[in-house]
Protein: Inactive hydroxysteroid dehydrogenase-like protein 1
Amino acid sequence: MAAAVDSFQFLLHEIIETVSHIRDSLALIGLLYVSTKTLKNAYTLLRTFNDHALSRIAQSWNSPLRFGPWAVVTGSSEGIGKAYAQELASRGMNVVLISRGENRLYKTAKEIESQFHVRTCTIAVDFTEGREIYSKIWEKIKDKEIGILVNNVGVMYEYPQYFLDVPEERLWQLILVNVSAATMMTHMILPQMVERKRGAVVMVSSGACTKITPQMTVYAATKSFLDYFAKALQYEYQSSGIIIQSLRPFYVATKMTSYSETLSSHSFLVPPATAYARQAVATLGFTSRTTGYWPHTIQAWLCNIIPEGLWMWGASMLNTALRKQAEKRLKLKASIKSEDSMDNLQIKASIKSVDSMDNLQLKADIKSMDSMENLQP
Structure:
């Protein structure tokens, strides 16, 4: 009996020892996890300060002119591209404006010249036309010392949609404009930067590539391409004195977001393009990967700590709501257009009826006058 009691006590002692070791191991793992998270968050906070606070303090000496006298900005007749070009011009850079609409390009160029007293050059091309346009661009810029290339031109879905609902034509546009344009423009301009050992290339990616974004499938994928393209180029050419920056804005109030009344209104999280560009340009030279706007950096941080499954569910819910909002607006516009057409037809019919009555009355008056004249001797 005593032997049994001793055996039980020994077994209990061994169990307690084992549990104690497990507890110590779990405590160590917990300490390592908390330490890692703390260090990671501290690093994120430090990077945020560097990207958005220190960069703005250092604007006086961090001039974009140190890269060269000319900047090339694609998609620069409106939105982020136009605002980015204006911001560079305000800091003394001459700008080459490349976009599709010739009239809007000319207007933007004149605005920049008169406001900032710099030189401009406009190139009207449609990037959906493929490789044929690049020789035209090269002829216009080959004699210019390009310091900064901003690959901004891009297209998005008309509004959030499931993949099979996106028209085939729009899918080709997404590839030709979002992927091909940045690739070929960089291939065209980067050699002269490498030769001079100075220059900067900005890839305007998107916050949509932070995590998988349902109902923006191809758009988000093309922006992920730009993000990875920028990171790889930065590694390849940093020893040549070249800065490659991936700029990942979340929602900015531009024509691209006009499908939604919510996203078209300026707010803390949805800034106007001018406010966004002012902060984004300041980060050039301080970081190779940024949202460009500090409230968007908070959004990106939240995205990264949310589990992917939960993120996709939330993104899908948001995009479903935005899609319904857009479809409702489109139906309302179609209804108004239809009513206007009906009103126009009614007006035309009324005018035609009045004209017919007037013509009949006129004919009757003329006939009556003719009869009176015939009765006179």
Q: What stands out?
A: The chain is about 65% helix and 10% strand. The longest strand covers residues 94-99. The mean pLDDT is 85. The longest helix spans residues 308-375.
